[in-house]
Amino acid sequence: MNIFDGSSTKRNAQAAVLEASKHWDDDFSPDILFVFHSTIQNPHDIALILDKRFSKTLIVGCTTAGEWLAKQHKNNELVLLGITSPDIKWSMSVLENLSSDPADGAKAVCTELLQQLGINWMDLNSKEHFCLSFFDGLSKREEPIIAAMASELGNIPLLGGSAGDDLKFENTYVIANAKAYQNAAIFVLAESKLPFKAVKHQHFIPGDVDTIITKADVSKRIVYHLDGMPAAERYAQLLHRSVEDLNTQVFSEHPLIYQYQQECYVRSISQLGENNSLIFYCAIEEGMILNLCSHQNMVQQFNHALQKLNKPANNIELILIFNCILRQLESKSTDCLQGMASEVAAMSKHVIGFDTYGEQWQGLHINQTMVALAMFNHG
User: Fold this and answer.
1) What is the rounded end-to-end Cα distance, in angstroms, of the chain?
2) Are residues 153 and 192 in the same domain?
3) Do residues 28 and 92 share a domain?
4) Can you give the pLDDT at residue 122?
5) CB atoms within 10 A of CB 5
6) In b/e form, how buried is each residue of 130-168, taking b as 16+ CB within 10 angstroms?
7) Region at 362 (left for phi over 0; alpha for psi -120 to 50; beta for the rest)
8) Which of 181, 205, 275, 355 has the fewest CB atoms within 10 Å, i.e. is most exposed?
9) What is the pTM of this model?
10) What is the pLDDT of residue 279?
11) Residue range 283-306, pLDDT digits in tens
């Protein structure tokens, strides 16, 4: 596997791409190029410049709420990573209208992905195939579409993240080849002769306090009432705070979880809405019982998750990271963010990723989680 990476803080798209790739071999033409960038760069310009620079390459990525590359977590940067390998075949498809029927969209996307690889559905297996997802992070359509994709793809690893915009909550974009899209999702299906492994990490357990969603706009993920009270007032009350204290940092440190069949699914709050409502990153329903969860030590649990990769450290060539923005805020507040970045880098020769507005794991859209794909050499 041949890998080049780089980053830039420049605002101008052409200058940023040139700086990020200035150390790459002149004849390097990646099979696939991952691009993640902040709101200081224009996604339309980035998509066009990259397509012009790497005209024969599959280009995929999105805008972010933070970037990961090598041994560092970054903000306000563009990061690039290109891969060539005769042992991996890649295919890519864009679902342009997330408001369409999810089952029809998933079927069309999977058909295109399989055709590009020249395989049939029956050929898919969890040892050779994986799928990556990149969603418009403000679409609020991740749940039905990722569930439909999982149904089509079966048991192969399916993971990814929702694009961010540095917590502005205005415009998020996914990038495929020469275009930046909104209200869209990109799926990458890979067939690999090299080993790989998907891993998921969260560090929350059920606490002692429950609250019930008693009024909500499900389609917009807005909760108006918890336990019959204005949602923000009740949430603040549970934390022994005032509504004026609520911000993204508080939301990152005190998420809610939904428990189902002995599994915990984080339902994180993205922002304070009008009339003391709460807007969530993930699907909610009236009558849903949410738990004000307790924390485990993030670094310890993170190390446990990395150990599940179960391979010698020097065999990992690449780790691709999808990390929730609220984890980033929490880890920053506890001064362990760069430590976590270093932990990942110590495991792998190359690291790239971004901070998300939600994560996809198999058929689920989740919050406050890191999902990652590790790719190994032949060893």
Assistant:
1) 12
2) yes
3) yes
4) 93
5) 20
6) bbbbbbbbbbbbbbbbbbbbbebbeebbbbbbbbbbbbe
7) left
8) 275
9) 0.87
10) 95
11) 889 999 998 877 766 666 666 666
Q: How far is CA 165 from CA 142, 149, 321, in A?
A: 17, 25, 17
Mind listing the pLDDT tens digit for each residue in 165-201? 999 999 999 999 899 999 999 999 999 999 999 988 7
Question: Structurally, how many domains does the chain consist of?
Answer: 2
Bridge partners of 323? 355, 370
* Residue ending a domain, choose from 263, 295, 327: 295
* Mean pLDDT (whole number) for 15-33: 93
Phi-psi label, residue 56: left if phi above 0, alpha if psi -120 to 50, beta otherwise: alpha
pLDDT of residue 42: 98
Q: Count CB-CB contacts under 10 A for residue 56.
A: 7
Q: Is 20 helix (H, G, I), strand (E, B) or coil?
A: helix
Last residue of a domain, one of 295, 316, 341: 295
Given a cut of 60, whether residue 235 has pLDDT beyond it is yes
Is there a contact between 58 and 31 (Cβ–Cβ < 8 Å)?
yes
Only one residue has tokens 């993920």, namely: 221
